[in-house]
Amino acid sequence: MPSSPPSLGTENQSPFQVDSRREIIGLLRGLKESKQLISMLINSGSEVFITSILDVDDSTDLVIIDSAPGQLANQRIIEAPRVSFEGLLDKISIQFSSSNLERIIFEDRPALQFAIPTNMIRLQRREYYRINTPLSNPIRAMIPVQLEDRHETLKLALVDISCGGIAILDERKVLDSTIGVIYEHCKMELPTIGLVDVVLQVRNSQDLVLLNGKSNRRLGCQFINMSNSVLASIQRYIMKLERERNAKLTGIR
Q1: How confident is the model at residue 5 (pLDDT cuts 50, 70, 90)?
Q2: Domain Type III secretion system flagellar brake protein YcgR PilZN spans what residues (predicted)?
Q3: Which of the ends of the chain has fewer CB neighbours closer than 10 A, N or C?
Q4: Three-class SS string for 69-98?
Q5: How far apart are CA 228 and CA 32, in angstroms?
Q6: Mean pLDDT of the residues in the chain
Q7: Cα–Cα distance for residue pair 169/41, rounded to 1 Å
Q8: Structure pTM?
């Protein structure tokens, strides 16, 4: 049987850590019953696979998940000293980790199993981690709008991003910044992830005066009716930014 997973490195997230076995099993079963896709990350997140929970057996202390596509990928997963998992349940981010995954056959198909984790992180939407996006190579949100007698797709730079929404800069102050206005058929191009489709709702607006005297408008927008697959993509990108930021901080030290 796989050994218990190592404790999550959650010093800054301890208020959101779940240690109750009963609650952990409930969350795992919720992910299984709602057939949610889960990101499975190895090598500090440099490799990501999509899986789902097939079974949670508290009598044997095991979680069974879909195997990754390909023998080599599964070999890397079972050889990894630590495997991290991230999923969404009712738009709540669920994170946990394990070690010593094993290959098995479950209901006549390849699968992986590991011990039920001893702790998890559960982040409510209001607690979604927000991270600043790069200034040197800004991400753009592409928002289609009607301007007088023509259609135009605005390409606006992101300030920050979370699994709940984004902040963007509207230098020309073209967008209707009324709270509650919804912009459909928007897109974001996330490095290493690709184009994702989003619906944005304006939640706040702030006009900024820059040091050079020019003004800018910052809009906080919430994602509306986001699919789980897109949310998983955004979550992976946020993790990528966090790894890059930590690497820079480590390099400075």
Answers
A1: very low
A2: 16-122
A3: C
A4: CCHHHHHHHHHCCCEEEEEEECCEEEEEEE
A5: 14
A6: 84
A7: 32
A8: 0.54
What values do phi and psi take at 182, rounded to 5? Answer: -110, 135
Positive or negative, the CA dihedral 190, 192, 193, 196 is positive
pLDDT level of residue 91 (50, 70, 90 thresholds): low
Q: Read off φ and ψ for residue 175, nearest 5 degrees.
A: -65, 145
Domains and CATH numbers, the chain: 11-124 (2.30.110.10), 131-252 (2.40.10.220)
pLDDT of residue 248: 67
Average pLDDT over residues 21-36: 93
**Residue pLDDT, tens place only, 192-211:** 888 999 999 999 888 876 65
In three-state secondary structure terms, 231 is helix
Sheet with strand 62-66: strands edge to edge: 53-57, 62-66, 109-115, 102-106
The count of other CB atoms within 10 Å of the CB of residue 38 is 22
CA distances from 229 to 45, 93, 163, 196, 235 (A): 17, 13, 12, 10, 10
For 6-70, the DSSP string reads: PPP--GGGGGGEE--HHHHHHHHHHHHHTT--EEEEETTTTEEEEE-EEEEETTTTEEEEEPPSS
Distance CA 247, CA 135 (A): 17
Q: Which two tokens stand for residue 235?
A: 């979550």
